[in-house]
Amino acid sequence: xxxxxxxxxxxxxxxxxxxxxxxxxxxxxxxxxxxxxxxxxxxxxxxxxxxxxxxxxxxxxxxxxxxxxxxxxxxxxxxxxxxxxxxxxxxxxx
Length: 94
What we know:
Layout: E1 2-6, E2 14-16, H1 19-34, E3 38-43, H2 50-59, E4 63-69, H3 74-91
Antiparallel strand pairs: 1-2, 1-3, 3-4
């Protein structure tokens, strides 16, 4: 069982049965639901229920598997490239 912990205040962890589901939510869903840009994915024993899994993560007895940054949308990437180009032109005095 996997628990995704959004790395912002007041965000509740979310439990997944598969690593794929946990990773996908950490990359896209966590930002949409909580505003978190970064999440930790933890592994806990499958024998636990969801409440026990969340308690294990909060109590520090889980195994941290990854820290995942959110995936940017195509529009966000285009905007970053555009802003970087403007900054470069300003830096060059153009």
